[in-house]
């Protein structure tokens, strides 16, 4: 019986994996330039960590976590996101000292039992970054400018940055109450989920995609109108900083997030080319979370980007990051005997080189070389062997030259390094 993969979980095949590698290497470079260092956190944690950080009343914790009991009866969950684990690790290792700023990034698979659809998987990859120890609005702008630069370097077109402020523990309760009162009035028009959310997590109602709920909440009070003076000043400062840095943004007062830990600045980077699952990256401030999880009071902000969504947006022409290889085409047994040692010497010189081990015809080897985008093909048949040469074909110009077998490695190393290979 054939075994299939689990629903909502996908393989990243070799033809596509360059996208993942490209996104990882470009983002790693940018994040390190911005002063972030990498942290690797576990794939599973105690369930309580996620319940206490993401929030008991969120969809993620209520119904999307892969939770299981280990043999001691402990409840564990596969991580649905990275922020909670990073905060837990920083607290466990006492890395959050007063008056110091820590910048960390991470990447890896996350797990959510959502309904699979295009751009939404049950195992998906994120790259995330978190800054601990400051609520300076310039840092909010720095995170957003870093994302902006990353998307520019990746060559991703058609994205919009939306920002909002969700206030703090001083001003949010009053907003929550006002919104709840509004939603109770509109209850008849809301879906069953939103009626429940009106009581448990009213802000989430603003994020419901059903047309009836959207329509019913058109006139909902705006969170921005209820910000306290400090939160308002903070949000103004973030917007001003973005303006000075030339990072384009839109304010969306209905932008709420699916995780409860956020305070003040929240944001999403949306693409116009992804359909329903259009958020490529998202995040915000979470000034209360570290303390809530037992650490010292530490303001923080971060984001995570969805690798699958970003990979779909990468322009195909981006795939030029790898050096074009050399292909050695042996014809006949005697040539096949000579090629492996040549390959070894070429590779020791840092040259990407491949061959055929199946004794295929020249035509079929040329086709293979073409498919792998070879810059040159070195043909070694009986005639070449007896003349002590390799026939070197430039795949772009189609020009062919005879290169003595003796000096082949040196000559090809020079030729290919001259072309940036
Ligand atoms: P999030 O909005 O839940 O935030 O996820 C961030 C990004 O991960 C989304 O914008 C999306 O691109 C991707 N993503 C989420 N769920 C899926 C899925 N089922 N399939 C494919 N891609 C998905 C967080 O996870 C926060 N931890 C971000 C953060 C970091 N906030 C502060 N620091």
Which terms would index this structure?
421 residues, BirA Bifunctional Protein, domain 2, Rossmann fold, 3 domains, 8-stranded mixed β-sheet, 5-stranded mixed β-sheet, 15 helices, 38% helix, binds histidyl-adenosine monophosphate
Largest β-sheet summary: 8 strands, mixed
Question: What is CATH's topology name of the largest domain?
Answer: BirA Bifunctional Protein, domain 2
Query: How many structural domains does the protein architecture include?
Result: 3
What share of residues are in beta strands?
15-25%
Question: What would you call the structural class?
Answer: alpha+beta
| Mean pLDDT across all amino acids | 95
Described by the principal axes of the CA atoms, the overall outline is: elongated
Low-confidence stretches: none
Per DSSP E runs of 2 or more residues, the count of β-strands stands at 16
Strand order of the main beta sheet, please? Answer: 1-5-6-11-10-9-7-8
Computed CA radius of gyration, to the nearest angstrom: 28 Å
Distance between the termini: 45 Å
State the name of the first-level CATH class of the largest domain.
Alpha Beta
Query: Which hetero ligands occur in this complex?
Result: histidyl-adenosine monophosphate
- CATH homology superfamily name of the largest domain: Bira Bifunctional Protein, Domain 2
- Regarding quaternary structure, what we see is single chain
What would you say the CATH architecture of the largest domain is?
2-Layer Sandwich
Fraction of residues in H or I helices? 25-40%
Note the total helix count: 15
